[in-house]
Specification:
The complex is a heterodimer.
Chain A: H1 2-25, H2 29-54, H3 62-80, H4 87-106, H5 111-131, H6 133-136, E1 148-150, E2 153-155, H7 158-180, H8 183-193, H9 195-200, H10 205-231, H11 241-254, H12 259-275, H13 283-297, H14 308-313, H15 315-328
Chain B: E1 7-18, E2 21-32, E3 36-40, H1 47-54, E4 62-67, E5 70-71, H2 77-82, E6 85-87, H3 100-107, H4 116-121, H5 123-144, H6 159-172, E7 177-181, H7 189-204, E8 208-212, H8 216-222, E9 225-230, E10 233-238, H9 240-244, H10 247-254, H11 256-267
Parallel strand pairs in B: 3-8, 3-9, 6-7, 7-8
Antiparallel strand pairs in B: 1-2, 1-4, 4-5, 9-10
Classes of the chains: A mainly alpha, B alpha/beta.
């Protein structure tokens, strides 16, 4: 058991070193950008996983969260001449503000009503950014974003920013993994499973939902902040509803509620367009079909292939098992359960 | 003697109306310390509604609820639970995606103190806390005799085992008063006996128990005091013996047959 764990840690360390070395060695900016974009998406999906994956509260406002995280810091850099490094704490603060200010009223709502509120929030953010042209730059957005300056170390090339992103992403993956596999991850999941029972255990559900939502907002804002540095410009057309849906898709693709799943999902869905480039105008059709197949046959995502218990429930294996079962029990009436 | 004991749970003129329907109508009772108090009555009599008002799921339309002489009207469910009132549900409410151990550990979540921000940086402290929580859960599982099931997913257990797990989860919150909503429903006789034994053991160890139950075998053997509801109103109150021979209770709930059986049992 312990040996297996050590092997895992060694593999992860190798992956980490590999990811750091990759942008340094591979001078192809296109590859570096693809990696950096993947890492940004990983961070955001990890956040979304807390509120939607674990706690089961459908959040369709990721684009709005990301936009606020990106704009708040960059506007302060541009208008107040703030040091670029401070955009990261500003993004975290923004995440906390969103978590409480939006979470407090909206998490009293359930199901579709919550989804609608988060869509509304996201759209309001986008419209404000679009129309408050004097302050946010309107549709032209924020241009010429300066390179991130780490106390004198200027990340002025894509590969430098990518290396820094690998480190940040690793820290956040580790933190997310710890939270998911702790008492917090457990109660988040419990809220998804049965909210009345959680309350009966003396647990403040509303407070926990806000915590989960704040975590999502913080991760989303950090992701947005780096997205700005990566693109070197921001404008409101980047933060549409499509983007929010895309993040949900990544989560579903990889495996709802799981950190490795989130990482795999974000990576797969970010890089898929690059691999499916040869399909040209058929891309969306093929992408749609792949998504549908996943929803039907692997509802718990790619990661469920590696989890014994979930695998038995996954659509494809269920179908196969039922077939097998039918052949075996042919003619035997199905016994009714106790309930 | 009975008058000297302190009140644990006191309902004063509780009424609950759902739109036109009066589910509970002017019910009062006083549950004393060191007792197993049963609330019985036909289906739809308002028993579960009463428990839901006690645990703060919804507020009573009128009337007051006291827990150890403290008015708990208007308190939220989790606040009431933190006062030391644990409960189980009529229809099981377990965390179905998790193992038995995890279900129990969620029950003990409130005994952990480390906050989320602190958790992210305090590696040692959070690990120690997790171990403590696990040990407590293991103790409870051993007490209930379900330690072999620790790693099993709750949804794959039999109904009887699930009921025990739910009881364990309630125990993990460290309650002083336990509300059991139809604990014996759906259990086979041997499971029922096991459940009753556990409940009695918990009572002996100092927990007060409030019971809703249909199974007369359980109610009459276990409880020290009974209140009978019918159509939302209290129709009788007393010790099991008094209730068994109360003509109104027999008419509304027990049925004539029951009296014959009870009389026969008394002769034996």
């Amino acid at each position: 058991m312990k040996e297996k764990k050590n092997v895992k840690i060694a593999l992860l360390a190798a992956l980490f070193v590999g990811l750091i070395v990759f942008p340094i060695v591979d001078k192809n900016t296109y590859h570096q950008l693809a990696l950096a974009q993947t890492l940004v998406n990983v961070i955001i999906v990890l956040g979304l996983n807390f509120i939607t994956g674990l706690t089961g509260q459908m959040n369709l406002g990721t684009a709005g969260i990301m936009a606020l995280g990106a704009y708040s810091g960059q506007l302060m850099v541009q208008k107040l001449g703030m040091a670029t490094i401070l955009t990261i704490p500003v993004a975290i603060l923004m995440g906390v503000i969103i978590g409480y200010a939006l979470g407090y009223p909206s998490l009293r709502l359930k199901g579709v009503y919550l989804s609608l509120t988060t869509i509304g929030f996201s759209e309001i953010v986008r419209l404000v950014i679009t129309n408050w042209a004097d302050f946010t730059g309107g549709t032209t957005g924020v241009q010429n974003i300066p390179a991130l300056n780490l106390f004198g170390l200027k990340l002025d090339a894509t590969w430098k920013l990518t290396v820094f992103l690998v480190i940040i992403c690793a820290v956040l993956v580790f933190t997310a993994y710890r939270i998911v596999n702790s008492k917090y991850g457990r109660v988040f999941k419990a809220i998804r499973d049965n909210i009345e029972a959680v309350e009966a255990c003396g647990i403040d559900v509303a407070g926990l939902k806000i915590k989960a939502f704040t975590l999502a907002a913080i991760f989303g804002c950090i992701g947005g902040c780096f997205y700005g540095f990566l693109m070197t410009y921001l404008n409101p057309t980047q933060f549409t509803q499509d983007l929010s849906a895309n993040y949900l898709l990544m989560m579903m693709f990889g495996g709802i509620g799981s950190v490795p799943g989130s990482v795999i999902g974000a990576t797969a869905v970010t890089l898929l367009p690059e691999f499916l480039r040869f399909t040209k105008e058929y891309y969306w059709l093929i992408f749609g079909i792949i998504t549908l197949l996943f929803a039907i046959f692997l509802p718990y995502g790619f990661i469920s292939l590696f989890q014994k218990e979930k695998r038995e429930e996954a659509g494809i294996f269920k179908i196969l098992n039922d077939r097998k079962g039918k052949r075996k029990n042919a003619g035997v009436p199905k016994s009714g359960g106790m309930r | 003697m009975a008058e000297e004991r302190k009140s644990v749970l006191r309902l004063e003129n509780i009424t609950k109306k759902f739109q036109g329907l009066t589910a509970v109508d002017d019910v009062s009772f006083d549950m004393k310390e060191r007792s197993i108090y049963a609330l019985i009555g036909p289906n739809g009599a308002g028993k579960t509604t009463t428990v839901n008002m006690i645990t703060g799921v919804f507020p009573p339309t009128t009337g007051k609820i006291y827990y150890r002489d403290r008015c708990i009207n208007g308190m939220k469910t989790f606040e009431i639970a933190r006062l030391g009132i644990g409960r189980t549900f009529q229809n099981l409410k377990l965390f179905n995606s998790m193992s038995v151990l995890e279900n129990l550990m969620i029950g003990g979540h409130e005994m952990t103190k480390i906050g989320l921000v602190n958790f992210c940086f305090n590696f040692g402290g959070s690990k120690k806390e997790e171990i403590l929580l696990r040990e407590r859960a293991e103790e409870v599982m051993e007490y209930l005799g379900i330690q072999d099931l620790a790693k099993r997913n709750v949804k794959n257990l039999s109904y009887g085992r699930q009921k025990i797990v739910e009881l364990g989860r309630a125990m993990m919150t460290g309650p002083k008063l336990l509300l059991l909503d139809e604990p014996a429903a759906g259990l086979i006789p041997s499971e029922r006996k096991e459940f009753v034994d556990i409940v009695l053991r918990m009572f002996e160890e100092g927990m007060d128990i409030f019971l809703i139950e249909h199974n007369m075998d359980v109610v009459m053997n276990v409880s020290t005091y009974i209140t009978v509801l019918n159509f939302g109103s209290r129709i009788a109150e007393g010790t099991p013996k008094e209730i068994q021979s109360d003509p109104e209770v027999i008419k509304a709930y027990l049925g004539d047959k029951y009296q014959e059986i009870a009389a026969k049992e008394r002769r034996d």
